[in-house]
Design a protein that fits this description.
It contains 12 helices and 12 strands. By secondary structure, it is an alpha/beta fold. Helix 6 runs antiparallel to helix 7 and helix 10 crosses helix 11. The radius of gyration is 21 Å and the shape is globular. About 40% of the residues are buried.
Length: about 400
């Protein structure tokens, strides 16, 4: 056999970017619903009063990297005046429990009285981001991971196309996306001036849109809808609408959110795993890796109730397959780390590793989930051991 014609063997990627591969993600949306009611999930989950306990429980399960948020609407109630009393405890608790944090600065919410459509929104957000960076630096966080604006594409659709939450309009999704991109870029530049070693995790849903029809028109429609998921990332890195100021040097980590309902037909019907048009997570991870050649983080993933464990098994299996193909996936963040009443309808969302607190402020761990995470940690460590051929000879 002529081995010169064989394709080169792929080498499994070994994640090293974050302190831990398995991570926890706290619900920290502060969106306002269409009736004007703000839903602060940090408060609703009890996380605001249980920071130390929540971070300690994560650390006890060896989840040493986590996502959490600085709530802009509470910090800057008056223009240019910052009250850090809700954020400093997070910084201190993270340091105490040695949790590496990915800080979100805007998760579907902003201060009252600020018009998101005006240039002032960009200026105020950039100034807030700079102030937050200075605070982090003063508190000893010299190289933090930061998500300036969480899930720009989803926010643009939910707030600008279907009026699901703020700004609560329709037909302006593209305009909102552009505005959020401008604000995000301005914030990242301000942060880098204060913290040159900061790294940005830019999050959005990873989806697949398909059609069962074979006509050219339907196939093209599906491709266009599928490609639309990349618009915000393309804007941020300067591939699309470079006049917005996109910059590849700010494009550090691609964070994807991935849930059981992230695949659908162009008609809007859900696409199930048994249907032929369904795509594997590993293939979607490889697609986005090939497109951007940047480290990937599954920044949110999870399912509810007794579906948590099988869903995690599937995600880990698919991520492992991607790692085997040299795709640079650096971690899986479980959402939510703690339960919360769902922001959309206030029902309990039983999807966390830890439940809602009892009257004494104690959370019950969902043991089947915890056991599966521990088992997967062991398997991942075994898979990442170098083979004898890769070992350095003595």
């Amino acid at each position: 056999m002529n081995t010169d014609t064989l394709p080169p063997a792929t080498q499994r990627h070994r994640p090293t970017l974050f302190k831990s591969f398995f991570q926890g993600s706290f619900a920290c949306s502060t969106a306002c619903r269409d009736e004007g009611k703000r839903v602060d999930l940090v408060i609703n989950s009890g996380h605001d009063t249980l920071l130390n306990k929540d971070y300690a429980q994560l650390a006890a399960e060896n989840l040493l990297t986590a996502r959490d948020g600085a709530r802009w609407y509470l910090i800057e109630k008056q223009p240019g005046e910052y009250d850090w009393s809700t954020f400093l405890p997070m910084l201190h608790a993270a340091k105490k429990h040695e949790i590496e944090m990915i800080w979100e600065l805007a998760h579907f919410g902003w201060p009252a009285g600020l018009d998101i459509w005006q240039p002032e929104f960009i200026d105020r957000f950039a100034a807030f981001a700079r102030a937050a960076a200075c605070l982090m630096r003063d508190e000893g966080f010299d190289a933090p991971f930061i998500t300036p604006i969480n899930q720009i594409s989803f926010w643009s659709w939910a707030g600008g196309d279907v009026a699901w939450f703020n700004p609560g309009v329709t037909g302006r999704g593209r305009e909102l996306k552009q505005q959020l991109v401008r604000a995000s870029l301005a914030a990242m530049r301000a942060i880098r001036e204060e913290l040159p070693a900061a790294k940005f995790v830019l999050t959005d849903p990873l989806v697949h849109v398909a059609t069962a029809e074979r006509s050219d028109a339907s196939q093209q429609n599906a491709r266009q809808q599928h490609e639309a998921q990349f618009e915000a990332w393309d804007m941020l890195c300067g591939r699309l609408q470079p006049e917005l100021g996109g910059d590849l040097s700010l494009f550090d980590v691609v964070g994807v959110t991935w849930y059981p309902d992230n695949q659908w037909y162009i008609t809007g019907e859900p696409l199930e795993s048994h249907q032929p048009e369904y795509r594997s997570l590993s293939s979607l991870l490889e697609e986005i890796w090939q497109r951007y050649q940047r480290p990937l983080l599954i920044a949110e993933t999870g399912a509810e109730g007794d579906k948590r464990v099988p869903w995690l098994k599937y995600v880990v299996e698919q991520t492992s397959a991607a790692l085997d193909n040299s795709v640079q996936v650096e971690g899986i963040s479980l959402f939510p780390a703690v339960d919360y009443p769902a922001w959309a309808d206030a029902r309990r969302s039983p999807g966390g590793l830890f439940g809602l607190p009892d009257a004494n402020g104690n959370r019950t761990i969902y043991e089947p989930y915890a056991l599966e995470i521990r088992s997967q940690l062991i398997k991942m460590k075994q898979a990442d051991r170098p083979s004898p051929s890769e070992s350095t000879p003595e």
